[in-house]
Amino acid sequence: MAKRGDPKTLVLNNFEELKFVDNIYCPQRGQLRLFRFHPFAKYMVSKLVCSVPVQQMDVNQQQQLLKQYKERCKIKQPHIFYSIESESQKTMKPGQFGQTEVFQIFVFFEYGQLTLHELTERRQIKRYLVPEPEVWCLIKGIMQAMHFFQNNNIPHGMITTKTIYFDEEYLLYRVYDQELIGGRWGNFNKYQQTKDPEIQVFLAPETKPFLNSEASLLETAQINPFKVDVFAFGIVLLQCLTLFQAFENPLKWLDQFYSKNLITYITQCIQPDPNKRQDWIGLYQLPLEPSQDQKINERNSLIQSHFENRGQKTFR
Fold it and tell me: Residue 188 burial by CB count (10 A; 0-12/13-18/19+): exposed, middle or buried?
């Protein structure tokens, strides 16, 4: 009798071994090792997530740390890329005073390829806006992932159009457990203090005073990382719905084509005052679909003419 469970979980749980393919580099995820499942055609990547000199940690502490990573890999949610395993090794690493033995932990996880940024660029070429039902699929998928994260006290910390992925096989919008592959708060602080203008547009106003500070934002000020993530997601939606076009008042322009509920949702996300901005749990109280009497405007010819009458100025 066939085993019960969804096909993806069955594949992830029943592969026999991982076959190494090559070393690759991803701007969002860093240096990775690419593997494929055997005997399946699926593929995973592994990343070094922890490296500690052996003299700083005894064997029991090493095993306890590895156990924590293994437990974290068991966290599963459909809109979060699966982490299936973690492994450890000891290796020699060159240092200031010669070779040092280090304890390393690698995590194996699914490799997402098609980013929301790339999807939006495809639409930009055709000059067709995203149909509203698809926008709600994006919102609901990311909301489910982020709500799950917040309930487990896990911030994402680096939401952009390039860190949200579309799974073409399962037709899901998905994100990574950035804390697992980047370290507790590590990505958050690095991302929030970036000087990259393409990333700074996603930063919440309350983080701006600390851009040049080397101290941890979460230690320097009472910043709610979940509300910071919400703001970034609002900017993601603006970029996607305007196809990266720059508008003086993008919400007013989008109001021609999208429902009141959608405009209200985005407005809540990009609320500049963090005391008034909802976190993911609060956003769940908003209607996550257009009401029955709100007609969705999907007249692509009209939308296309709007873009043709404007220049190619972009806001990214």
Answer: buried
Whole-number Cα distances in Å, 38 to 73, 127, 151, 224: 20, 42, 35, 43
For 197, residues 6+ apart whose C-beta sits below 8 A from its C-beta are none
For residue 14, how many other CB atoms are within 10 A of its CB?
Answer: 12
CA dist 62 → 70, 178, 184 (Å)? 12, 22, 17
Q: Which of 291, 231, 293, 297 is nearest to 266 (CA)?
A: 231
Question: For 179-220, how does the pLDDT look when each residue is reduced to its tens digit (9 = 90+)?
Answer: 888 765 555 556 656 677 788 888 889 887 776 665 555 555
243: left (phi > 0), else alpha (psi -120 to 50), else beta?
A: left
Cβ pair 115, 162 in contact under 8 A: yes
Is residue 87 packed enough to be buried (19+ CB in 10 Å), middle (13-18) or exposed (0-12)? middle
